[in-house]
Specification:
By secondary structure, this protein is an alpha+beta fold. The chain is 30% helix and 32% strand. The protein folds into two domains: 64 residues, Winged helix-like DNA-binding domain superfamily/Winged helix DNA-binding domain (Arc Repressor Mutant, subunit A, Orthogonal Bundle), CATH 1.10.10; 144 residues, Chorismate lyase (3-Layer(aba) Sandwich). Strand 1 and strand 2 form a beta hairpin.
Length: 234
């Protein structure tokens, strides 16, 4: 793992556990460089990742600060589809297309920040909400983190397994929302007769101990997808 990623993980861990508190300034680059035995450029690269993830905010002439998470709406993406549907009073059925352990290809290993070839759970599910096939979910999770993940968890709720059975807390996630044309297979799974564009939500999610535990790519019907957030001037 590159040095800057090691530093990223450690600084992120400190943010997660409150060593670096919201709205507080991070140590200067020179101080962090001395602590980690690297150049200030390496520290900058590590902080760049945290900025992209939305955990750190740079203020011109002042330094880098831990960003306060102000959007309650975004927390809905930290509880999983099953709990979101339950909260909205909607029924949910899950059709598992595949669930297997495979060596992580290069792109997935990079997303999960693990060595290429390390075993990951590779999961594809179609989520049927209120009797309408609505989401195709592709998920990858390190087997080393969840060696006892079973089909029954995949069929019900992986997040419920992580939080209720294992006792972890899902702390944060980085999301990217784009549009993507549905594949022929996805058209069939979603019972669509005509080619269409789906709303694609890519997500990397983190536990409160700082571990990156999931990369997922969920493709939603455009007319059932809803996302809200807040913007605050700081």
């Amino acid at each position: 793992m590159p040095k800057y990623m090691e530093i990223y993980h450690e600084v992120r861990r400190r943010i997660m556990v409150g060593i670096y508190a919201p709205d507080k300034k991070l140590p200067e680059g020179g101080r962090l460089a001395a602590e980690f035995g690297c150049s200030e450029l390496t520290i900058t690269k590590a902080l760049d990742v945290l900025v992209r993830e939305g955990l750190v905010l740079r203020k011109r002439g002042l330094g880098s600060f831990v960003k306060r998470q102000v959007s309650a709406a975004s927390n809905s993406h930290l509880i999983g589809t099953a709990q979101r549907c339950a909260a909205q009073g909607k029924t949910l059925a899950t059709c598992v297309q595949w669930y297997r352990a495979v060596p992580a290809p290069a792109d997935i290993a990079q997303k999960l920040q693990i060595p290429e070839g390390e075993l990951v759970h590779e999961i594809c599910r179609v989520r049927v909400i209120a009797q309408t096939p609505s989401i195709v979910e592709y998920t990858w999770m390190p087997v080393a983190l969840f060696p006892h993940l079973a089909l029954r968890h995949v069929q019900h709720s992986i997040y419920a397994y992580i939080t209720h059975e294992l006792g972890y807390t899902v702390h944060s996630a980085h999301m990217k929302v784009t549009g993507r044309r549905a594949s022929e297979q996805e058209l069939m799974w979603l019972a669509l007769a005509e080619p269409t564009t789906l709303i694609q939500v890519e997500q990397t999610a983190f536990l409160d101990n700082g571990k990156l535990f999931e990369y997922s790519c969920a493709r939603h019907l455009w007319h059932t997808f809803n996302f809200e957030t807040d913007f605050v001037r700081v």
